[in-house]
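This part of the workshop introduces the protein records we will be handling. An example says more than a description, so a record of this kind follows:
>
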Amino acid sequence: MMCSDVTVVVDAQDDLYSTHTALQAHCPEAGCITVQPTPANSSPTALAHDMLYALEKRLASGPNTPDAWLDSVDTAWLAAAAWAIAAGVRHVVVPRAHLLTSQRIDQLLAWRERAGAQLTLLWQKAPCGLPPGLARVERHISGPDQLEALLAAPKPLPARPFLPLAAPTMAEAAAVGAGVSPAPPRRGTRSARVRPGRQASPCTGAMATAQVVEPAPAAGITSGGASALTTLAHPLMSGALSVLAFTQVGLGSLRFTRDLDITGDVSVIKTHGPGHRHCPVHVIPAWARPLLAAARAHHRLAGRSPTDHVFAPAMLADARHLRAHAGRLPHLNLAGPASLLVP
């Protein structure tokens, strides 16, 4: 199979200008990132971690790091793909690709299939050593001028991945299509809107519930707290802790949140109380929307259903990794005496 979205730039003379051009192309806000492979790092997850770093994510360090589960190759690359999708990354540039092993090249190509981004590799030595994984690449160019023109060209929208849509239930879809509310307002109310956070009907998705219930406003957090959550490396950790921060609910209320409990525009989320007796909806603040988008992309890339619980993998082992991250962010008050991280 030919790789039409991959370009190999052959720079046999290792021109410094080519490297400079690649580094200057790094602009996440414009959908382009430059991933610099860490030299002489033999860890199987090294390149995935470099990708996360380019996406402005930082792994926690130390012997008992809560990011230990990102030492798994599949887990690390899945996290990198989810963040790239949420950030709208359309082009990835990798200088000094000739130093990568065949396994790392294959990992990059597999990541590209998941994330749907264009991939440009700088092969900065003679092309005779191209690995088999790049022999299928349709486009080879050479020279700094061609590289500069490639990076300046308009970036295509990702053709992949084909993420399944988080469709509402059949009853909700029929109600929305007919232009009616999927659940009637409570008796005695003067309109379909009720008090913020009140439950409208048992466990419909967020889209349907938000039509008849006024979402509760988001609790404010400091800009430092939002920045700290944004840089967490795993999208489920970042997403889960952000929900706990802006909803002020406990861990048990987050445990059963499904993909369909996040609206399509990532503006409202629904949480669930014991026995679904109180399942409020909440406004998602602007700073948290990319985090929830990444968590949902992670959920769907893993092949899970819209009715599955989004944060279930973060709840394993008594949510040990989640609690550890909360302990590293004391200014969010997620692990204090009045802990929100109580089941």
Residues 268 and 283 are 5 Å apart (CA to CA). Residues 73-87 form the longest helix (15 residues). Residues 159-194 have pLDDT under 50 and may be disordered.
